[in-house]
Write a structure and sequence with these properties.
Elements (H helix, E strand, L loop, with lengths): L2 H18 L2 H4 L5 H4 L1 E2 L4 E4 L5 E8 L7 E8 L7 E7 L6 E8 L9 E15 L2 E18 L1
Parallel strand pairs: 2-8
Antiparallel strand pairs: 1-3, 2-3, 3-6, 4-5, 4-7, 7-8
């Protein structure tokens, strides 16, 4: 009979140790949301030919497919965005610069206030069709300057 109380005491002691352990150590945390980011510089450029250049920084960790920094710009109507190029990203955990240049097809943007949204997106292989996986996104009010 003395074995039974000893086993119960050991089990109770183990339960107390588990209860005293912080929850953060019980399950691994997804650090991708902390270590992956994209920023937008506060000033973009409009060239004489109408092309727009926007830039910023990004940081991402390894992926299984190609990763890109894409960007859009809106000016008068925030619900209408125009694509401004894309840059292939290097996902090594380090901070890198990105610069996208493009000419919107159906509108001429003007110097002044605008909104730029940058997205860090991976084309992850899933069967025969790669599916987009978003790593980070950031919107920023910017000034588009001539030149």
């Amino acid at each position: 009979m003395p074995v039974r109380p000893a086993a119960l005491a050991a089990a109770a002691g183990a339960a107390l140790v588990l209860l005293a352990t912080p929850a953060a150590t019980a399950a691994p945390q997804d650090t991708r949301h902390v270590t992956e980011s994209v920023t937008v510089d506060p000033v973009g450029r409009i060239a004489a030919d109408g092309s727009v250049t926007v830039s910023g920084t990004y940081r991402c960790t390894g992926g299984t497919g190609p990763v890109y920094v894409s960007s859009t710009v809106s000016q008068t109507d925030p619900s209408v965005r125009y694509g401004v190029g894309g840059t292939r990203a290097v996902c090594d955990g380090q901070e890198h610069r990105w610069v996208n240049t493009g000419t919107p097809d159906s509108v001429t943007l003007k110097p002044g206030a605008a909104h730029v949204e940058a997205t860090l997106m991976e084309l992850r292989p899933m069967g025969i069709v790669p599916l987009p996986t978003f790593h980070a996104r950031h919107g920023q009010d910017v000034t588009l300057a001539q030149g």
